[in-house]
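A.,

Following up on our hallway conversation. Structure tokens first:
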């Protein structure tokens, strides 16, 4: 999309348009200062809501200009009420810009939600893995206790029969003393 009127971002991250640039694009016959003052008054625009007014120093002469940064809605309305082909074209341009901006925001929101969903899914999986590890550690601890118990029992059993040749059994029957 070709840029008809430059759209900037202010310090709050809002999209704004220079009223002076809009005035020039609309090819209004009125001088700028009267045009903007009349439009603000006639259509009830509010300062710091629909526009911001600020001074701009002219570097070459040291003079100052009063500038206006318009919100996209304000610029769109001013273009519409201008009542000429340029106004209609500018309004269409602002609508297209807003649509594109909404698409970008929706895409960014979707991507952010997707990243959040994946992080959440990973955290759930990490919790599952953590539970599995803890279960395996409990099983390991239990098995170590069982092995230690079997070892102790085996030692007691073998201590009882150690060095007693008379008590050797094979196949469940007592054997004769081996000499």
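Then the amino acids I'd put at each of the 179 positions:
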């Amino acid at each position: 999309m070709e840029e008809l009127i430059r759209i900037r971002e202010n310090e709050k991250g809002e999209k704004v348009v220079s009223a002076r640039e809009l005035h020039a694009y609309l090819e209004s016959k009125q001088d700028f200062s009267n045009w903007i003052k009349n439009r603000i008054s006639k259509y009830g625009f509010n300062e710091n809501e629909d526009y911001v007014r600020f001074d701009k120093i002219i570097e070459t002469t040291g003079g100052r200009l009063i500038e206006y940064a318009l919100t996209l809605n304000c610029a769109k309305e001013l273009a519409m009420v201008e009542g000429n082909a340029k106004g209609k074209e500018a309004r269409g341009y602002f609508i297209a810009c807003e649509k594109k901006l909404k698409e970008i925001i929706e895409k960014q929101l979707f991507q952010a939600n997707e990243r959040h969903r994946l992080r959440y899914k990973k955290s759930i999986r990490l919790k599952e893995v953590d539970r599995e590890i803890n279960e395996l550690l409990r099983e390991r601890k239990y098995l170590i206790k069982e092995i230690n118990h079997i070892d102790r029992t085996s030692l007691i059993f073998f201590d009882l029969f150690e060095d007693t040749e008379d008590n050797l059994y094979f196949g469940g029957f007592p054997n004769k003393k081996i000499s």
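The chain has a mean pLDDT of 85. Curious whether your intuition agrees with the design.

B.
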